[in-house]
Amino acid sequence: MNYPTIEDAIGKTPLVALQRIGAADNRARGNVILGKLEGNNPAGSVKDRPAVSMIRRAEERGEIRPGDTLIEATSGNTGIALAMAAAIKGYRMVLIMPEDLSIERAQTMKAFGAELILTPKSGGMEYARDLAEKMQTEGKGRMLDQFANADNPRIHYETTGPELWEQTGGRITHFVSAMGTTGTITGVSQFLKEKNPAVRIVGAQPSEGSRIPGIRKWPTEYLPKIYDPSRVDELVYVSQGDAEDMCRRLASEEGIFGGISAAGACWVAQQVAQQVENATIVFVVCDRGDRYLSTGVFPA
């Protein structure tokens, strides 16, 4: 008998309705807001999908093989997912991340066996990405490059999008996602638009001066190559304060223990709901709140 492996546990995550936040207004308007619980993936985030996809497909193309060294710049969730995927498939994983990201993320990556290189806070993710490319050029390993790798959005086109369509019975009218690498929003948009061009795709972006883990507004020269602006109908800006407040509310009012970027997407979904009627609005709960405990976002 062939039993499933941890890799087989990725995807098919639950879709749940919000019951209290904005409930009265949504009932009056005939709207429903649904959260896709990607924190239920084995390594705790939506990034489990592209992490395994990028490694598996690189193997299929003969670009890498077990025992090789993989290098990736990450702000957290992709690094954790890649560390898990490397452990599953037998790779040495070197992750490069800014030093100011939460200690839970760094500890989780190390638990999966990854090696960490911390870069100066002042350089942000841009510096980390530059260093990863430099190390690859120097022959120190192979970059999967989540920001330019078509296998990132491809897995969301193949799995996340179809799951949402099936779980809503094709009734989804709006899809809201935080934008980091943009793999999730790009891949899901492609699938949903093929099913129904009227589905509205909304990207959550940080307002000026806000630092929200997992949501980025990239300088033009660092804009992910996988990003296709034509696949996003609208950008809505969320402040760090609103995202953190929603993070606490999701936990205390809905029992959904999500991360700050997930809460930012939820906040945007609430703004969308105030402008429409009879809508089925889905947002991505992209990870779990336990990897943000040291940030102080939750009450001590």
UniProtKB/TrEMBL annotation:
Entry EC no(s): 2.5.1.47
Signal sequence, renumbered to the chain: none
Biological processes, Gene Ontology terms: cysteine biosynthetic process from serine
Gene name per UniProt: cysM
NCBIfam families (UniProt xref): cysKM (TIGR01136), cysM (TIGR01138), PRK11761.1 (NF008735)
Entry similarity comment: Belongs to the cysteine synthase/cystathionine beta-synthase family.
Cofactor(s) needed by this chain: pyridoxal 5'-phosphate
Name under which the protein is recorded: Cysteine synthase
Gene Ontology MF terms: cysteine synthase activity
Keywords linked to the UniProt accession: Amino-acid biosynthesis, Cysteine biosynthesis, Pyridoxal phosphate, Transferase
Residues in Tryptophan synthase beta chain-like PALP domain copies: 6-287
UniProt binding sites for pyridoxal 5'-phosphate: 77, 180-184, 261
N6-(pyridoxal phosphate)lysine: modified positions: 47
InterPro entries: Cys_synth, Cys_Synth/Cystath_Beta-Synth, CysM, P-phosphate_BS, TrpB-like_PALP, TrpB-like_PALP_sf
Source organism (scientific name): Hydrogenophaga aromaticivorans
